[in-house]
Amino acid sequence: MAFEIKHLNKSFGDKQAVNNLTLNLEEGQILGMLGRNGAGKTTTIRMMLDLIPIDSGEILWKGKPFSKKNLKIGYLPEERGLYAKMNVLDQIIYFGTLEGMTKNNAKKEALIWLEKLDISHAAKKRTEQLSKGNQQKVQLITAILHDPEFIILDEPFSGLDPVNSDMLKNVVRELISKKKTIIFCSHQMEQVESFCDKICILKDGNLVVFDELTNVKKSYGYRYLEVETMSNLSDYFKKNHYNYTKENNRYKIRVSRDTEAHRLIQEIDEKFNISGVSLKDPSLHEIFIERTGSDKSA
Q1: Tell me, which fold does domain 221-280 have in CATH?
Q2: How many CB atoms lie within 10 A of CB 33?
Q3: Distance between CA atoms of residues 204 and 196, nearest Å
Q4: Is residue 194 helix, strand or coil?
Q5: Are 50 and 44 within 8 A, CB to CB?
Q6: 248, burial (CB in 10 Å: exposed 0-12, middle 13-18, buried 19+)
Q7: 262: exposed, middle or buried (C-beta count within 10 Å: 0-12, 13-18, 19+)?
Q8: How far is residue 106 from each of residues 57, 86, 111, 174, measured CA to CA in Å?
Q9: What span, in angstroms and rounded, lies between the C-alpha atoms of 252 and 281?
Q10: How far apart are the first and last CA of the chain?
Q11: Residues 173-177: contacts with CB within 8 Å, 24+ apart?
Q12: Are strands 223-228 and 73-76 parallel, antiparallel or unpaired?
């Protein structure tokens, strides 16, 4: 494995913020890191970036300590890390030079990214004059300007309208196409499902889920049968003790096996008029709620 976290621990006083965390990624894979507030995500990232010391355990890249000495790292923090009074272009160039770029090369790449993200017009503006969404774009540019091998994206879509969100999705897809290794933290589950190969869910500092996304869904032991009909099926499902929800004319029934779903379809098709059926895996959102006891992922 290219990236490995082995038996990582961190405590603050009596609170165990990260407890014996172990996970890994192949080079070019994308990990979705999920958890409620206080789950240990931010603490883990800060240890990765050497912002706080590790109590015990290790973080490795290709067998060596995970460090800017051994690879180029890009980091998009959830909190803004920009200088409010500094103009956008100068700021991007400055951050590029901190990562070892020459000023000329940093300026060249900065102008390319400003054009790509449709904020060339803001190059000479102070950061504080930009909207929250455009500040987020500038922050992203500073994270990837130096062409890092490993990228940490913490809530990359925060504060973006749908147009700008789509723009950043295209950037993420471009990074994926370049085989960048990425840790992706987001409360937008559909984005995590769209981009990530592996999923980890943290709860109270403990790793409660870690696997390939497809395996996580397959291992859950249940699926959802969706039935579309104008008929009232509620009494039937209650009488037969089915776990179901209803939205408009669509019923969603939890089934443990495909054979149970096929039998149920046959039964209700004989008794009611059905206009459509489908069988689906649980969503990442549903898995998250079940494993953390909350619908809040960040």
Answers
A1: Alpha-Beta Plaits (3.30.70)
A2: 26
A3: 23
A4: helix
A5: no
A6: exposed
A7: middle
A8: 36, 16, 9, 19
A9: 12
A10: 28
A11: 175/144, 175/151, 176/30
A12: unpaired
Task: Give the other-Cβ count within 10 Å of 201's Cβ.
Answer: 24
**Residues composing the chain:** 298
φ, ψ for residue 43, nearest 5 deg: -60, -40
What confidence tens digit (pLDDT) does each residue in 57-84 have? 999 999 999 999 999 999 999 887 899 9
The single residue listed with the structure tokens 């103009």 is 87
Q: How far apart are CA 55 and CA 12, in angstroms?
A: 10
8 A C-beta contact, residue 252 and residue 228: no
Inter-helix orientation angle 88-98/132-144, to 10°? 30
- Which pTM was predicted? 0.86
Q: What is the pLDDT of residues 106-164, one digit of tens each?
A: 999 999 999 999 999 999 999 999 998 899 999 999 999 999 999 999 988 877 888 98
What is the model's pLDDT at position 298? 44
The arrangement of secondary structure in 3-217, i.e. its CATH architecture, is 3-Layer(aba) Sandwich (3.40)
CA distance 242 to 136: 45
Record the tokens describing residue 18, joined without a space.
């990260």
Q: Are 101 and 146 in contact (CB under 8 A)?
A: yes
Query: Where do the domains of the chain lie?
Result: 3-217, 221-280
Say how far apart CA 138 and CA 117 lie, in whole Å: 9
Name the E strands within 114-214.
150-154, 181-185, 198-203, 206-212
Residue 206 is encoded by which pair of tokens? 């403990």
Q: Which of 156, 152, 157, 211 is nearest to 183 (CA)?
A: 152
Backbone φ and ψ for 269, nearest 5 degrees, come out as: -70, -30
